[in-house]
Write a structure and sequence with these properties.
Blueprint (H helix, E strand, L loop, with lengths): L17 H10 L3 H8 L3 H10 L1 H27 L3 H12 L32 H18 L5
Length: 149
Amino acid sequence: MEEKVQKKRTRPRIQIDPERVEQLAQVCDNEEEIALALGISYSTLRNRKREFDSFNTAIKRGRAKANAFVGGKLMALIREGNPAATIFYMKSRCGWKETDRKEITGKDGEPVKVDKVNQLDLSKLSLEQLDALEGIVNAASNDTGDQTS
């Protein structure tokens, strides 16, 4: 009895225009969207990036062009004196942060009074006693759902 040798089936290679890839990279959020818009799988897109430097370069160039376009519009707004654009730029590019500082005071602006809690002096316990106490505390923590590690 003769065994049949199956031939590997190959599909025709999909032609992808690098200029189209660059255009899509300007408007798509990620590479999965680029692949979807091209009508190919994400794995095909990754393979093409690996196989052809021009394909990877087209994606990078498209993203850079989009960033330059948006950045130019933002700079135009900043030059016009738009405060929202200026604040956005300072936060995203210069590390500015908005902080909300809250101070807590006691009655009539006095310092907050804290009652002293009885503190246990565990220094006089033996190692066996400390181990036993740790076991009790862990068991109590597990009963309440708290984790104290």
